[in-house]
Amino acid sequence: MPTSVQKTSPKHEEIYKEYKEIFKEEITETNICKAQFHKIDTADDQPGFQKNFRVPMHFETPISEEIDKNLRLGIIRPSNSPWCSRIVPVTKPDVSLRMCIDYLP
């Protein structure tokens, strides 16, 4: 159970325990929602494209592992789209990596 959840009311704790597969810290095949297809309507906007920048060496392996895991789980897929934004790795308080996207032009 996530540490942030441990300080909740007993009623909420019961819900978290009953549906613990949904509230897992780790993303797996069992807690990915595939009920809705997500599409972003870009209308007639010109594709945004950002060149990649160098990632610090200590982030290279965790980023590759996270991308491979997300590809394997079907969360992301390879794309040849003209739209491109860079990955911004952010270290979380527990030292794990959060993958963010910089959508600014």
Automatic annotation (TrEMBL):
SUPFAM superfamilies documented for this protein: DNA/RNA polymerases
Chain segments annotated as transmembrane: none
Entry-linked InterPro entries: DNA/RNA_pol_sf, Retrovirus_Pol_polyprotein
The protein's name: Retrovirus-related Pol polyprotein from transposon
